[in-house]
Amino acid sequence: MPVSKAALRQATREALANTSVCSALGKFADNYVIAREQAYRHKDFEGLRREVARIKREAAERMEELAGQFAREATRRGATVFRAATAQDAREYIARLARSKGIKTVVKSKSMASEEIHLNDYLKKQGLNVVETDLGEWIIQLACQRPSHMVMPAIHMSRNEVAEIFSREIKKPVEPEISSMVQLARRELRRKFLSSWMGISGANIAVAETGTIVMVTNEGNGRLTTTLPPVHVIIVGLEKLVPRFTDIAPILEVLPRSATAQHITTYVTMITGAVSAVDPDGNYHEQKELHIILMDNGRTSMAADPVFKEALQCVRCAACLNVCPIYQLVGGVFGDVYTGGIGTVLTAFFTDPQKAQRVQNLCLGCGRCRDYCSGNIDLPALIGELRRRTVEREGLGYVEKAIFERVLVNRRLFHRLLKTASRLQKPFARGGKIRHLPLFLSGLTEGRTLPAIADIPFRDRVGTLPRPDRATGRVAIFSGCLVDFVYPGIGESVAKVLAALGFEIVHPEQQTCCGYPAKQAGLTNIFAELARQNIAAFAGIDAGHILTACPTCAEALKFLYPELLAGDPVWSNRARELAERVTDFSSFVHAHREKLTPLLVPLRQKVTYHDSCHLKRYLRVTAEPRQLLKDAGADLVEMNRSDVCCGFGGSYTIKFPELSKSVLNRKLESALDTGAEVVALDCPGCRMQIGGGLDHQNSRVQVMHTAEILARCLAGAGRA
Question: CB 640: neighbour CB atoms within 10 A?
Fold first, then answer.
C-alpha cells in the first residue's frame, strides 16, 4: 500500500465499503472479549502480564548474551544456528540450503517472521515451490493476499470467498461448508507434506538455557512441518528469546488466552536439538537437519532504543488487534506485515519506517489495547512517541503550525479567536446546533451535528454562578476548552452541585487549553509550554482541590504534566504539587455522596452510561459515576460495549471523518439498543460526538454529563 496521506485515506474508505469484513471483525471482537474474560477466570491477569513483561524486559536487555547462549546450547544438541543480521541474510541462507540439497518443494507452518522478510516471494523467484500449510495462510496464499491478522490470517474472508478460492485451486465447484472445506484442505495439503524435503516454521519462544524452541499451534500442520521433512528450518526473531526454561510457563498462560481465548492451544511443541526423520523416498535418517535462523532485522536497534525497547515485550497474541475499534473497521489496512497498534511500531523498526509514519495516524488513542496487552506494553505511549519523532523529523503543515505554534500558546489570542468564531458561526447555527459546514470543515458534520460555540463562555459566567449559603471549602475549577467555550452549561451544573455540597468555586482567569491536542499532534514542546502556563495559573490559589469535568484535562494535569516536566528543575515540583490536587468531577462528588443524596429529587428515567476512554483507561474511574446516577434515582441499564470509544479523538474527526463516523455509529447502536431515555457520560468530547450523532438521527434520546443530571435532580434546582 502506498504511504501517502491520500492513499491511506482511500484505503480506509475501501475497507469501510467492505461491509461483510467490518461485520465479521466486529462480531469476532464482541465474542472475543466475553470468551477471553471466561478464559482468565480464576487467573491473575495483571500478575501474569507483569511477570511476562519482566521476563521479556530482561531478555531485551541481555539480547546479545542470550543469543550467544542459545546458539551454543542448540548447536551442542545437533542444530545448526545461523545469525541473520538482515532479512536478506535470512532469505539467502534458506535459498542456498535448498539449492545445496536439490530441494524443489517446501512446506511452511505459520510464521510471521517469514512474512516479515517476504520469504515466499523470494523463494518462488529462486524456483522453489513454497506451500503454506496453516489453513488460514494457505487460503491467503491461494488468494494472493497477505495476512490481515497475526493469529488469524484469513479472518477478513467469508466462507463463500474461501469456497471460490478453493474452487479455482482444484478446478471444480466447492460448497461453502466449513467442515467439507477443511477436509479438502487436509487432503490437498497432506500430499504436500509427504513429498516435501524441507519444512519451514516459526517459533513462539526460544529458550537460551536449553536451546529449546517452543511452538503453539491449533492445527496438526505445525507438527507435520517440523517432523516429516528431513530438513527443518526455524526462523525466530531475537525478541522470542527468554533466559530460562521456567520462563515458558507464564507466557503459555497468557498467549492462548489472549490470542484465541483458549486455556491452552491444541498443540504445544518443544524442539530441543535434532531428531530422526524419514524422507519422502522412505529412507530413514538417524538425525534430520535442524537449522535455526536467529534473525535480527531491526531487533537490536529496538532493544537499544530507550523508549521502543518496551515493544519487545510483545508475545504476538494480537489481543491489541482484537479490541481495537479501528482495526475492527479496516483490518489489515491498519499496519503492514504486522497489523494494528503493535504492528505500527514493529513496522517502524522491522519492515517499512515510512509506512509506519503514516499508518500511526490511524490510531484513535483510546488506550483499550494497553489494558488487554499480555506483555504490559503502553502501546498508546509508543505510538505517541512515534508520532512525536515523525513531527520532529518532518515538521507540520502550514495550517497546523499556525494553530499550535501561534494560536494555542497565546491564551489571549486563542480565546479572542474563539469568541470571534462564536459570531462568525451564526449563518450555520440553528437552535444552538450546526448541521453543515463548508469546504474542508465538512467532515466535522459528517454523521453528526455540532454544538454552536457559546455566546458567553463559562469564564464570563463565573460571577453569576450559585454559591453555598455557608461555604465549608473552596474548589478551583479547570474548565478546559469544551466546557469553557462550548458547554458552559456543564460548568454551571458543576458549580450548582458544588454549592449544594457547601463548596465555593474559584476559576483562575489565566488558565488555558490543557495541551492534550498538542500532545496528540506530537508537539511535546507546545504541550510543555501550555503545562507551564496552567501550572502558573493555579499557583497560589487557595483551594484544596482542582476539579475538572473533562477527564482528558484531568489526565493531562494529574499524570502527563509531572511526566512531561520531570526533568525540569524549575517546574517538576510545581507539576507534582498541582497533580496532587487534581480530581475528576464524579470522583470528587462520590466522596461526598452521603451529603448530596438526600438533596436529590429522583430522576425516574432509564439511563445508560458511556465510559469515556480517558476516565476509564487512564483515571481508572468506572463505578463512581454509575453510583451517583443510581443515587439520583436513575434506572441504570448497561449498554453493550460501554467502554468502547465513541470515535471522537479530537482532530481524528477531521483527519479520518469516515472512520470517526463508523466508530460513532456502533456506539449509537449500542446506546439505542438499551431503550434508554438518557445517555450519561463524564466527557464533554464524548457529549459532542454522541449527542451530535443522535441529533443527526433526529433521536429524542438526551445526552447529558453526570454533572448536568445531578444538577437537574437537586431539590430546588430551579430556584438556584
Answer: 14
**What beta strand segments (E) does 610-711 contain?**
635-636, 678-681, 702-705
Block residue for cell numbers 501550555: 530
Euclidean distance between CA atoms 445 and 449, whole angstroms: 5
> Per the structure block, which three cell numbers stand in for 447?
454523521
b/e per residue 308-317 (b: at least 16 CB within 10 A): bbbbbbbbbb
In percent, the amount of the chain with pLDDT more than 70 equals 98
Closest CA to 274 of 128, 76, 78: 78
Candidates 666, 668, 682; CA nearest to 586 is 682
> pLDDT of 308-357, one tens digit each?
999 999 999 999 999 999 999 998 899 899 999 999 999 999 999 999 99
Strand partners, 269: 215
DSSP at 485: H
Q: Are strands 433-434 and 429-430 parallel, antiparallel or unpaired?
A: antiparallel
| Residue 438 pLDDT class (50, 70, 90 cuts) | low
Full DSSP string of 343-388: HHHHIIIII-HHHHHHHGGG-----HHHHH-TT---HHHHHHHHHH
Q: Which amino acid is at 500?
A: A
Average pLDDT over residues 192-206: 93
Mean pLDDT, the chain, whole residue set? 92
Q: Which residues of 508-532 are buried (b: 16+ CB within 10 A; e: fewer)?
A: beebbbbbbbbbbbbbbebbbbbbb
Instruction: Tell me the DSSP string of 380-410.
Output: HHHHHHHHHHHHHHH---HHHHHIIIIIIT-
Count of residues for the chain?
720
**How do 289-295 and 231-237 pair as beta strands?**
parallel
Ramachandran angles phi, psi of 309, nearest 5°: -60, -20
Grid coordinates in use for 508? 483562575
Task: Give me the mean pLDDT over the 217-233 stretch.
Answer: 91
Contact between 113 and 150 under an 8 Å Cβ cutoff? The reply is no
Per residue in 296-309, pLDDT tens? Answer: 999 999 999 999 99
Mention every residue, 6+ apart, whose C-beta is less than 8 A from residue 527: 515, 516, 518, 519, 560, 564
Per-residue pLDDT of 612-652, as tens digits, reads: 999 999 999 999 999 999 999 999 999 999 999 999 988 88
Helices (H) then strands (E): counts for the chain? 36, 23
- pTM beyond 0.85: yes
Cβ-in-10-Å burial (0-12, 13-18, 19+) of 432 comes to exposed
> How far apart (Å, rounded) are the C-alpha atoms in residues 548 and 494?
9
Query: At residue 366, what are phi and psi to the nearest 5 degrees?
Result: -75, -20
Q: Which residue has the cell 500558546?
A: 409
